[in-house]
Amino acid sequence: MTYSWFSRVIVLGYKKPLEREDLCELHESDSSYIVCPIFEKQWRKEVLRTQERQEVKASFSKETHARKPSLVYALWNTFKFVLIQVALFKVFADILAFTSPLIMKQMIVFCEHHPDFGWSGYGYALALFVVVFLQTLILQQYQRFNMLTSAKIKTAVIGLLYKKALLLSNVSRKKFSTGEITNLMSADAQQLMDLTANLSLLWSAPFQILMAISLLWQELGPAVLAGVAVLVFVIPVNALVATRVKKLKKSQTKNKDKQIKLLNEILHGIKILKLYAWESSYQKKIIKIREQELEVQKSAGYLAVFSMLTLTCIPFLVSLATFGIYFLLDEGNILTATKVFTSMSLFNILRLPLFDLPMVISAVVQTRVSLDRLEDFLNTEELHPQNIETNYIGDHAIGFTNASFSWDKTGVPVLKNLNIKIPEGALVAVVGPVGSGKSSVLSAILGEMEKLTGVVQRKGSVAYVAQQAWIQNCILQENILFGSIMQKQFYERVLEACALLPDLEQLPNGDQTEIGERGVNISGGQKHRVSLARAVYSGADIYLLDDPFAAVDVHVGKQLFEKVIGSSGILKNKTRILVTHNLTLLPEMDLIVVMESGRVAHMGTYHELLSKTRNLTNLLQAFSEQEKAHALKRVSVINSRTILKDQIVEQNDRPSLNQGKQFSMKKEKIPVGGVKFSIILKYLQAFGWLWVWLSVAAYLGQNLVGVAQNLWLSAWVKEAKHMNEFTEWKQIRSNKLNIYGLLGLMQGFFVCSGAYILTRGSLAASRTLHTQLLDNVLHLPLRFFEINPIGQIINRFAKDMFIIDIRFHYYLRNWVNCTLDVIGTVLVIGGALPLFILGVIPLMFLYLTIQRYYVASSRQIRRLAGASRSPIISHFSETLSGVSTIRAFGHEQRFIQQNKEVVNENLVCFYNNVISNRWLSVRLEFLGNLMVFFAALLAVLAGKSIDSAIVGLSISYALNITQSLNFWVRKACEIETNAVSIERVCEYENMDKEAPWIMSKRPPSQWPEKGIVEFINYQARYRDDLGLALRDITFQTHGEEKIGIVGRTGAGKSTLSNCLFRIVERSGGKIIIDGIDISTIGLHDLRGRLNIIPQDPVLFSGTLQMNLDPLDKYSDRELWEVLELCHLKDFVQSLPKKLLHEISEGGENLSVGQRQLVCLARALLRKTKILILDEATASIDFETDTLVQTTIRKEFSDCTILTIAHRLHSIIDSDRVLVLDSGRITEFETPQNLICQKGLFFEMLTEAGITQDSVTK
User: Fold this and answer.
1) What are the distances in angstroms from CA 274 to CA 233, 395, 609, 1074?
2) Percent of the chain at pLDDT above 90?
3) What is the spatial distance between Cα 498 and Cα 479, in angstroms, rounded to a whole number?
4) Which domain of life is it from (predicted)?
5) Which of 980, 1049, 927 shows the shortest CA–CA distance to 504?
6) What is the mean pLDDT of residues 486-491?
7) How large is the average pLDDT for residues 1127-1149?
8) Were both Cys, which of 137, 301, 1069, 1164 would link to 759 (CB 3.0–4.6 Å)?
9) Are 1083 and 994 in contact (CB under 8 A)?
10) What is residue 1215's DSSP assignment?
C-alpha cells in the first residue's frame, strides 16, 4: 500500500534517464492481450442483444426506432467488478475525510475548557494523525485502481476501433476519413478514459455534499438551509454551462477532425506542395480551420471564468448565507471557535465536490458526443462475407455468373453482368481504357465491392499486388516475409526473380534496412518489386496483380514477367490475373478479358479475339500501333541472369546515386534530463508578458484576500466571547459580517480577472506556437519528411497542441496558486504557533528531496509514454492505407496482434506513471500528516496560553496544507513533463530549413521567357556525410528544346530534376535559367515558374476545382478547356456536381489513370516555359497515352521539355538525349548520333528491344 516496491525505479531514474526496459511490467490480466478479447466478446453480446430486441419490437410494431448497440453497456459488463471495487475505496476515503473536522472540533473544545486530564488532548492529536494517514492510504489505492481501469477502458476501445477499421466496407470508408478514424482513436477514446477516471464523482460528490450539510446542521441548525439554497441556485446554472460546453465540444471536435485530415493529406502529399509552391495556400487553409478552433476555445475559456468563480466563491457564498441566517434566526446566536472552524473545514471539504459535480456532469455531456461518434463508427456497415463465395470447390479458380457490383448498395453499378470463368493455373490479362473497371474486377474478386446481383466464386488463398504499392514501416525482409516463416532458399529465389538483388547492394543494410513510411526511402519501381516479392513469397493459390510493371524499366519488366509471372516463372502453376497496359504481353496469355464501361467487351485467347470481330481487330491493331509508334520490338530472349549480373557490377563499380535515399526511418527522439527554463520562457513570451504579470497580480490578490477572510473570522471569534459586554454588539456583528462579505466580493473580482487574463494569454500562446509549428514544418526540406514518420509530426499538432491549448496554462495557474497558498499557510500557522516553523524546516527538506527523486523519474516515464503514443497512431494510419492488401492476404489477426503490442507498450508506460504518482502521494501526504500532528501537538502543549480561535485556525490550515503541498509538487512535475509538449512543438525551429520562399531579389514577372536551362560544373549531394550524387554536370539546352534524360537505376535522373526545383541544394557549381542563377531567388519564385507532371499522381480531398487550382487563379472556362485537352471533359460533365465533384482522400474515388490526367490538367493550367515530365503516363492505357503525348507536344510546343525516362520509347523522338551514369554526363547528343556511337544509350536500347531501324523510321 505504500508502493515501496516501486522505489527501485524511482532511485534508478534519479541516477540515469529511464529506458523502457527499466519499467515495471503490467500484471497479465491488465494487459491489452487479455483486456481487448474480453471486451470484444461483451461487445458482440451487446450487438446480438440489440438485434434480438429489435426483432421482438418489429414483431409487435411495424414502426420501430432503430436502437444502436450501446458501448456503455458493453464497457459496464466488462469492467463492473473493478468499478465496484473502486467505488468502495472511494466511500471509505470520503467517510474518513469527514472524520478529521470532527476530531478538530473536539480539540477546540478541549482547548476552550482546559480539562484537568491533558492526556485526552494528546489522544485527539494522535487520532487526527491516524485518521488522515488511513485516508491517504485508502485514497491512493482508489486512485491506482481508478486510473488503471480508465486506461484499460481506453485500451479496449482502441482495440475494438482497430478491428472495426479492418472490416469497414467502402461506403463506411467514405463516411470516415483516415484523419477522422485516427481522431476517434486518439481524442474520443481519450475523452472516454478521462471521464472514467472521474466517474466516481457522479455519486461521490452528492454523497459528500449530503454528509457536509448534515454535519453543518448539527453545528448551525436550520441556518444551513440558506447555504443549501445557494447550492440549489448555482447547480442548475452550472448545468446550463455544461450544455453550452457540449455544443462547443462538438464544434471543436469537427474542427480538430478537419485540421488533422487536411494535415494528414498535406504531409502525405508534401512533395507535390513543394514542387508546385503551394505551401502558403495550404498553410492558409490550416490557419483558417485553426482560427475557428481558437474561437471555440475562447468561448470555452470565458465559460471557465464562471467555473473558477464557482469553485472559489461558492464556499464563501454558502458560509456567508449560512452565518447571516444563523444570526437572523436568533439574536443570541454567537459564532464560537468550535462552530466557525468546524464549519469552515466542512465548507472547505464541500468546495471540491461542489466544483467537481458540475464539471463531471459537463464531462458526461462532452463524452456523450464522443460516445455517439464511437458508436456511429462501430455500428457502420462492414464488408459482407456473402459478396463472394470462398469455400467453392469446383473446377475453376474464379467464377463470375451474371455478377454486377457497386461501391455501395444503392449506387450505380460499376461492373455489370460479368460472366467470367478462370481455370486453375491460368494466366489472365485484364485490359481496357482508363476508368473501364479493370482494377474494380480485382476488387470484386477480393470481396471489396458490394455485390448487387449474380454469383462470385473463388477457390483458394489470395495474394494481391495493389496498383499503388503499399509498403510497411519495417525492415525490407519483414515487408517481403509479411508474417510468413523464413525459408532461406525460396526467399533468395524470390529476391532474384523480382530483380531485388541489385537494390539490396545499394541499401545500407541490405534486406535489414528499415523502410520508411509509405516506402519513402526506396524508388517507385523498388516499391512495386517489394510488393510483388511479398505476394510471390506468400505461396498463395491466386495472384491478383494490378499493373505491377507500371513503374519499372522495360528490361526489368521483361525479367519480372519471365522469372515470376510468365510460363517459366515461379508462379507458372498458379492462377494469375494481371491488369496491364503493356499490350505486348497479350500473346503470352491463356485468357484475355477486355473491359469497357464496366462490362466485359470481349474475352478469349489472343488468337480467338483477333478472329472475332472487326472492331476488336482494330483494337488489337491499335495495340500493334503501340509497338510501331514507339519502335518497340520484342526480342527473342534476354539473359536475365546476365542483366542482373551487369547491374550488380555497375552498382559495385560506381557510387550509388540513391545514396541520398540510403537511410532508415528515425525513431521518436526521447529527450533526457530536465526541461530547460528557456522552453517555459518561450511559452511565457508567446503568452505575452503583460498577461503574465497581470495574472500573477490577480492570483496574488486572490490568495491575500483568502487569508484575510480567515484571519478576519478568527478575530471575530475572539471578540464574540466578549460580545455581550458591548452595548452596540448587534451593529458590530453586522459590520463584521459586511466586511466578511466585502472580502468575498474582492476575492470574486480577483478570481474572474485571473481567469479572464489566463484565457486571453493562453489563446495568444496557442495561436503563436501553432503558427510557428506549421510554418517550421512547411519550411523543412523534403528529406525530413522522408525519414520521419508522419505519425510523429501529426502527434505534434494533435496531442502536443492539445496539451498547450487546454492543459499547460491550467497546470501553470494551479502551481502559482498552490505556491501562494503554501506560503500563506506556513506564515499563518507560524504566526499562531512559532515553534511550528522549527518542525516545518526538516519536513520541507524531506519534501524537496522526495520531489527531486520523483521529478527525475516521472519526467522520463512521461516522455516514454509520449513517445509510445506515436507508434499507435503510425501503425493505425499505416493499416488504414493498406487495409485492402491486409484483407486480401487474410492477415487481419496478425495486424490486430501488432496493434495490441503497440497499445500495450503505451499502457505499461501509463501504468508506471500512475504508480510513480501514487508513490509520491503516499510519501508527501505522510509528511503533510506529520505537519497536522505537529500543529495539533503544539496546540495541546500550549494549553491555556493559546486562544481556541488560534487553535482552530492553525489546525484547519494544517489540514489544508497536506493537500496543497502534494498538489504543489505534482503540479510542478506536471509543468515540467507537459513542457515537453512545448519542447516538441519548438523542436523543428532549430532544424535546417529550406531557403526562403521569397527573397529580396525577385525575377521579372515573365521569367523564364526562353526556357534556356544551363548547368555549370554542378555538383550535389543528399547529405554532407554522403558522396556526390551529381558530379561536374555541365550542359545547356536551347529554347523550346525537347531533352530526354536517361540512365540506369541510380544514375542521377531524379536527382537532376530535384536540383532544378532545389529540392536538393547544390554542393558546387550553379544552374542558370534564362540568365538568372536559381540559387539567388526565392523557392516560390523558382518553383512557381517551373512545371512538372510527377510520376505519382497525388490528389487532395476537396473539390475537383480545388485540386486543379488551389490558388484560385483561373476561371471556370479555363478549367474546362484544360479538362477537354486532357480528355476528362466528358467524364467531369457526367458527374452530378461537375467541377465541384468531391474528391475523396488520396483521390480514391478516381482511377489511378484519371488521377494522372488531373495532374496533366494542373500542368496545362500553369503552362510555364519549362516542363519536367517524370514518366507521367505510366498508369494510363495506350490510347490515352497517345492522346496525352499528342496534347503535350501540341500545348507545350513552345516550351523546353525535360523528360526523365524510365521507358526509352517515351524519349526516342527527343531533340537530344542526356545520358547519365554514376552522376556524370557520359553522352549528350541526338538519338541517331548516340546510336551510331554505340555507347551506353545504345546498350540500353538493345536491352529494351529497340532497334536502330525502328528509331530512324
Assistant:
1) 58, 53, 47, 22
2) 16
3) 14
4) Eukaryota
5) 1049
6) 91
7) 83
8) 301
9) yes
10) S
CA distance 282 to 1126: 25
Q: Are 461 and 424 in contact (CB under 8 A)?
A: no
User: For residue range 1226-1241, what is the model confidence (pLDDT) as tens digits?
Assistant: 989 888 888 888 888 8
Q: What is the distance between the alpha carbons of residues 1168 and 1195, in angstroms, rounded to a whole number? A: 11
- In this prediction, residue 64 carries a pLDDT of 54
- What beta strand segments (E) does 424-508 contain? 427-431, 450-458, 462-465
* CB atoms near residue 372 (< 10 Å): 14
Strand 462-465 relative to strand 599-604: parallel, antiparallel, unpaired?
Answer: unpaired
Strands of the sheet with 1224-1229, listed across from one edge: 1091-1093, 1170-1174, 1200-1204, 1042-1046, 1216-1221, 1224-1229
CA distance 247 to 365: 9
1042 and 1214 in contact (C-beta within 8 Å)?
Answer: yes
Give the contacts of 1237 (CB within 8 A, at least 6 positions apart). Answer: 1227, 1229
Cβ atoms of residues 933 and 125 within 8 Å: yes
Cell matching residue 319: 458560509
Alpha carbon 226 to its chain centroid, in Å, reads 50
- HEC readout, 921-939: HHHHHHHHHHHHHHHHHHH
Q: Which H helix or E strand runs over 1045?
A: strand 1042-1046
Instruction: Count CB-CB contacts under 10 A for residue 677.
Output: 9
pLDDT at residue 502 in the model: 84
Does 428 have pLDDT greater than 60? yes
Nine cell digits for residue 1029: 550524387
Q: Do 279 and 1110 form a contact (C-beta atoms < 8 A)? A: no
Distance CA 973, CA 173 (A): 42
pLDDT in tens, 1063-1080: 988 889 999 999 899 999
State the cell numbers at 929.
Answer: 500528516
Confidence of residue 163 (pLDDT cuts 50, 70, 90): very high
Residue type, 1225: I
Neighbour-count burial of 233, counting CB atoms closer than 10 A to its CB (0-12 exposed, 13-18 middle, 19+ buried): exposed
* Residues contacting 301, CB < 8 A, separation 6+: 755, 758, 759, 762, 763
pLDDT, position 63: 55
Q: Do you find a cis peptide bond into 834, omega within 30 degrees of 0?
A: no
Whole-number Å distance between alpha carbons of 1205 and 551: 11
Amino acid of residue 832: A
Buried b or exposed e, range 163-197, using 16+ CB within 10 angstroms: bbbbebbbbbbbebbbbbbbbbbbbbbbbbbbbbb
Cβ 541 vs Cβ 459: under 8 Å: yes
Give the separation between CA 68 and CA 66, rounded to whole angstroms. 7
Non-local (6+) Cβ contacts of 846 within 8 A are 927
3-state SS, one letter per residue, for 951-1019 = HHHHHHHHHHHHHHHHHHHHHHHHHHHHHHHHHHHHHHHHCCCCCCCCCCCCCCCCCCCCCCEEEEEEE
CA atoms within 13 A on the CB side of 688: 16
Residues 6+ apart with CB under 8 A from 122: 937, 940
Residue in the block written with cell 519483414: 478
pLDDT at 74 over 70: yes
Helix (H, G, I), strand (E, B) or coil at 457: strand
> What average pLDDT score do residues 851-868 get?
83
Answer whether residue 577 shows pLDDT above 90: yes
Pinpoint the alpha helices (H) of 16-118: 32-60, 71-113
What single DSSP character describes residue 498?
Answer: T
Residue type, 487: Q
- Unique residue bearing C-alpha cell 470508408: 173
